[in-house]
Amino acid sequence: MLILKFIFFLFFITSFAWGQKIVFIVNSSNTVSRISHDQLQDFYFKRNRTWPNGLPIRFFDRTDGSEVRKLFLANILKKTSRQVDQFWIGQKLYTGDSAPTKVSTRSLVISLVARFPGGIGYISEGSALPDGVKVIEVTEL
After folding, report:
1. With a threshold of 0.85, does the pTM exceed it?
2. Phi/psi of residue 26, nearest 5 degrees
3. Is 108 exposed, middle or buried, given 0-12, 13-18 or 19+ CB atoms closer than 10 A?
4. Which tens digit of pLDDT belongs to each residue from 2-23?
5. What angle do CA 15, 21, 27 make, to 5 degrees?
6. β-pairing, 22-27 with 34-36?
7. CB 135 within 8 A of CB 23
8. 21-139 falls under which CATH superfamily?
9. How many CB atoms within 10 Å of residue 56?
10. Three-state DSSP class for residue 48
């Protein structure tokens, strides 16, 4: 019986993780409504530092180990956590650039994106958002 409970628990957890999706949010004053995977990578890796309207981009990442970050790394950046960490170590040494700010909770991502006009972050899909942030569409362009 204990084995059956354990198998059911594993099935439930993996089903949840497989079904989880991420959405990208920006400050509600941002006029951008659509962004491509390539643009997200450029924003995250600081190859592009401004929105089309000239506002500086402020990318908010999630902390290591969070399921939503694992999805972001795999589906958007197409890199492992270790590869990303190595990239930012090199950037810090050679250019002085540091990685985007990592935050631990969904509510903190929302709060920070709402606070900074150039803010962008990602959260799990499915919950209502407060005033101050909006979801943007991600395209394959």
Report:
1. no
2. -130, 165
3. middle
4. 443 333 333 333 333 445 799 9
5. 155
6. unpaired
7. yes
8. Periplasmic binding protein-like II (3.40.190.10)
9. 11
10. coil
